[in-house]
Amino acid sequence: MSSFTCSLCSTNRNFVSFAQMFRHITIYHQNESNFKITCDLGSKCGVLYRAYSAYKSHIYRKHSLELYSSRGNSNVDTMFDVDQQEENKDLSVEIDETDDDNNCESSFNNEDLYSILSNTDCGTRLYDSVASFSSADIDEEPLELMKNIKKSFILFVLQLREEFLLPKSIMNIISDYIITLMQNIEIILEKKAFDCYANSHSSVSTSFRKENKKIIEFDHVKNTFNDIRDKIKSITKNEYQFIKQCEDYFDYNSPEEIVVSSPNEFPENGYFLPVDKTLLSMLKYQPFITRILENIQNQHTAAEHDDDLMFSIKNGHHGNRLDQDTLLIQLYLDDISLTNPLGSKRDLHKLCMVYFTLEDIPDECRSKIDFIQLVGICESKFLKVRTVVDHDKTVQEIKSNPNKSSLMGVVGESPLHELIGFHPILSLPGDLMHDFIEDVWPIIIMSRLKQASSMRLITYDLALSYPFRKQWLPVLEDLCNTFNPMMILHFPTKIIPKVHFIREYERMIHDFGPSIKYWCFRYEAGHAYFKKIAMRTNNFKNTPKMLVTHYRLKQCFKFVCLSKFKNVDYSIGIKKIRSTYFNASMKTVLLKHFGRINFEDNFIQCK
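and the corresponding structure tokens:
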């Protein structure tokens, strides 16, 4: 009979099975500060593990057969076949309580062991939360059993809401999923049932009639619930199995790792989500594609009827060179601080984030964070601000030495370098949020709020207009040129560079279209998701990888929702409109659109 020795015990205790030794290590040694064990189960092992979580993951991935094997261990219930072991390598170990291993260890039943195994990554718990939901007694009446089920679910809801602070909306989602699960179980049981013809006596006549009933064996019901239970456990048991399930069902792809440090520095990595793969995941759902194409067509039709309208860069000066059927991608880069430290540690957890969004998505989707996609993430200290001189010097070095694949992230000249007045460092549009909302407007409001309001110094309507009319450009230019000397006259001590940027908005809108289409207002809101994850996980070891992995999992879920993308147009009010409100030109438009109309009757307006 095989013997297994615990190297963590001072007495080198022996066990007749590996399952017993693994249970012993889990119960007594997992929280030891000097945890150190070498796996010697296979000829290719021999790796030293200094953390129980890493050792446990290795056992479940590489030695599940030894863990569940009944050879030399009569107390292990091999209730799973080989195929199920391959699929669910992390199922709990069933241990018979009649073992005479140790007086203390014998007091732990199977549920205690599963609870310990499933909570090892969360640290030592003061109590088992699952044990607070009492199990049903087989001798109880069905009515009492239903009350216990209801009571257990109420406790479950209370714990999630009051202990883990989950909002009510999340609780509703959990309840909906549980109901859907029970409905699917009912369908599975109905499929497994078989017809049984039973004779029943009719109360009307003495003749017998056959009733068609469906019957299912209790063992089938029990096995069905066992299968469902095991699959649920296998999904949530550890991160490895969860990621694997996401790859199988939701097309999860791990982020690509790229080196961002210099060759002579300590290796540091950034993480990249390929734009083409993200677009393929987004655009494989026909309802979403249909809405994008409808939005492009509607804007194109409106611009044809009124060429003074500007909806996007396609209607700007640079848009004349673009194919109207091209999907435009908008990139955004910003630095964020995951925490708010003071002093010398203020840049300790500062990351550089790169996002993108589609220029042509419907307007009702532009303000939704779900349509802002992450492209890359790395620590900010590895990205240096590049000037025109530095960039041109780097390009010349690459051109003089073609063998260099890339230098400082530059692979060669920009494809747009032949455009007149274009430079990769300078030819980027300004940002409406940073220039107006964060700097210029607060300065004026704090300095002379009443004067600015009465004298109409602040003109939001033109800067935020969408769509923008080309005939407004001269007016905006005059206002911007007047605004600059007035600032110098009234607030000479408040002049900052962004005050001068205001003078460039007329030219910027002329070239790139309405400025509200490429401001970073919603991009800034996207930072909150990553900050929340960092604060809740409190994990700052390889933070970029941790954040991009969480985001990629969220992305898989959101892309599935695009398959149910619907038109969100709905009415918010209905009222009667008198026909006298319409002038002659408006009546002409209504007649052309609706045909014959009786203007003597009132109209119903829906908005």
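(Above: one complete record from the training split.) Residues 70-133, 202-208 have pLDDT under 50 and may be disordered.
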